[in-house]
UniProtKB/TrEMBL annotation:
Cellular compartments per GO CC: cytoplasm
Pfam families, A to Z: CN_hydrolase (PF00795)
Natural source organism: Salix purpurea (Purple osier willow)
Alphabetized SUPFAM superfamilies for the sequence: Carbon-nitrogen hydrolase
Keyword Nucleotide-binding among record annotations: no
Assigned keywords, A-Z: Ligase
Record's protein name: Glutamine-dependent NAD(+) synthetase
């Protein structure tokens, strides 16, 4: 058996409240570690808050994001646990909505969102560029203060996955799950068994059902562990995010957080058997 314990979080982040957001992130990592998890997934843009709107266009917002990440990286937070942290990143002169993957005090990959949410209440195209270079991982030069603090100059940036000794793990950023050819389809064919979806999804009647059907659809025939993390509560804008972070294995929901909780931090954990994924995939020859 290849047992893996994962943790996915509902966090009540506030737009531009960096101190509060950072504390919530740290506390969620602590709780994930206490539960014995080796992967901790946080919601989309958790460092800045999802609803920063035009503050995403200010350089300060991006810089403060890096300062917060630095604080996580120089402490022992990421020791022994893969942490996906959501934050905006500028590469060249473009802003990307990213999952920054950290492990053992290093950034091991930055995964920019490839399909932006721009329907209904979403206006991500106003602030972010969609990453469209699906066929390459490029070198991203870390801001000098981060580079000095973590003794690392650059990091792979783009679409890819992380291969560990016993499994492979990848990010799929929120809206990407709901697109015609979601990344998890091809990632699964490349051996990725664990998907980490960082989301900023507001409450809308019956949307939870749409989400759950997507997680189940993503894994019930192709197999996989689907981790979903969402923002929780209001964040200063006009939307209410309804949490429900969960873990789905081979089409079955094995853990789910609350939907209308008043708690700022809720960490949902699950112990999963990766061999169940390999075994389901063994059906297709
Ligand atoms: N932040 C997003 O990408 C939103 C994705 C999706 N439309 C949802 O509401 O859940």
């Amino acid at each position: 058996m290849r047992l893996l314990k994962v943790a996915s979080c509902n966090l009540n982040q506030w737009a531009m409240d960096f101190d509060c957001n950072l504390n919530n992130i740290k506390e969620s990592i602590t709780q994930a570690k206490q539960a014995g998890a080796v992967i901790r997934l946080g919601p989309e843009l958790e460092i800045t808050g999802y609803g920063c709107e035009d503050h995403f266009l200010e350089l300060d917002t991006i810089n403060h994001g890096w300062e917060c990440l630095k604080e996580i990286l120089v402490g022992d937070w990421t020791d022994g646990i893969l942490c996906s942290v959501g934050m905006p990143v500028i590469k060249g002169s473009e802003r990307y909505n990213c999952q920054v993957l950290c492990f053992n005090r290093k950034i091991i990959m930055i995964r920019p969102k490839m399909w932006l949410a721009n329907d209904g209440n979403y206006r991500e195209l106003r602030w972010f560029t969609a990453w469209k270079h699906k066929d390459q991982l490029v070198d991203f030069q870390l801001p000098s203060e981060i580079a000095e603090a973590v003794l690392q100059q650059s990091v792979p940036f783009g679409y890819g996955y992380l291969r560990f000794l016993d499994t492979a793990v990848a990010a799929e950023v929120c809206e990407e799950l709901f697109t015609p050819i979601p990344p998890h389809a091809e990632l699964a064919l490349n051996g990725v068994e664990v998907f980490m979806n960082a989301s900023g999804s507001h409450h809308q009647l019956r949307k939870l059902d749409v989400r759950l059907r997507a997680f189940i659809g993503a894994t019930h025939t192709r197999g996989g562990v689907y981790m979903y993390s969402n923002q929780q509560g209001c964040d200063g804008g006009r939307l209410y995010y309804d949490g429900c972070s969960c873990v789905v294995v081979n089409g079955e929901v094995v853990a789910q957080g609350s939907q209308f909780s008043l708690r700022d931090i809720e960490v949902v954990t699950a112990q999963v058997d990766l061999d169940a994924v390999a075994s389901l995939r063994g059906i297709y020859q």
